[in-house]
Amino acid sequence: MYSILVVDDEPNYLVVLSELLRDEGFEVFTAPSGKDGMAQVDEADLDLIITDMQMPGMDGLQFLDAIKEKNSNLPVIMITAFAEVDKAVAAMQAGAYNYLSKPFSNDELLININKAIHHYSLVKENTRLRKEMFDRTGYSGMVGKSKQMQQVYELIEKVAPTPSSVLITGESGTGKELVAKAIHFNSRRVDKPYITVNCAALAENLLESELFGHEKGAFTGAVAMRKGRFELADGGSLFLDEIGEIPLALQAKLLRAIQEKSFERVGGTTTLNVDVRIVTATNKDLKEEVHKGTFREDLYYRLNVIQLKLPALRERQDDIPLLVEYFVNSMAVRLEKPDLEIEKDAMRLLVSLPWEGNVRELENTIERAAILCDENIIRSEDVQPESLGSDKQKAFGRELNLEQVIPAGAGLNDVLYAIEDRMLNQALDESSFVQARAAEKLGITKSLLQYKMKKYGIKKRK
Asked: What is the CATH number of the domain that holds 22?
């Protein structure tokens, strides 16, 4: 049963309207003033509010503003006198669903009520589905429950409803595009387009056309008018990935489009106006690029209204088991291997690795292992990532005289265990057991050091 609150300072009108709505099967609450109406908003789970415009104390517009602060999606139908149409228009601009001028028919009222309630039901269902998706996999497929990722989620939740530009920073493979999607799909623009452009993927002349479109004959090959990404994103969000790669010559036109919300297509003279929310991402230090003269300072500050920095995977190793489980389950579906699983030793190895390529490298490692593993069981030997065995490591290995340091007949696991245990203890001793300094000596993260200390049973000596 849908619940409706009717607010009016005329008792007879409340009675008549309440009876009509109850006869139509609605649950009806009434209030004689805006102040009393707000008390009902706080106490009841409402689907619609119908309120008179003219009331003593808190009038209809003030009541509407108070409602929208509590629940911006809750529909409000304003009842006005014929001479109050200008106020009704103001109410629509302030977020009212619709207004009806007295006198109006019961049919007109019921049509508006049913439309408003249906719209609100869709909004609530959309919100529920988004929350369900987040509870299952994080924002837009983001996975992680670590403190660092909780901070990311909280920041997304704060910035998503705003129109402000967002600059997402972080190493390659940390999931910057997923954050951009999360910002859009948790914003008020969720029903509008989400358009992406990779600024590093196109040459300068092609990138300008991609962003702003072109007119027929603007250049060789422009055989027809083509809309650009700014135009296609009108009303929604435009994600500019790898913004640090955009050519300096094109930055001025991009700045103007963002500042003035207008531009011309390549080869065109007509100015087009758009309403676009800009989200950008980079793995570069844009402030350093500004100092070098390769990135405009005014554009940097225009893009960097809110900065959201993504942690590297090695900084949130507690999330690795969750990510591995997520990727294994995904590959089981994609590769039609429903019994795909991963051994505990393989999982332990994955947690201990540095992941220079971050989440993308981890995903690629799991995909490769899922394809190549035997008996649909991912084992330790299946999950050696490409980042292991760098040129520096290989050169060190070639220079090392194994016969001088390894006893004859020693097994690989025994040697690795002994060397790692020795190096850990030595670094901790030299650092007076200050873990951050020991980790720096070893060239690993503090969290990885703590994992290895637990693995080898190393405790601080008294």
From this structure: 3.40.50.2300
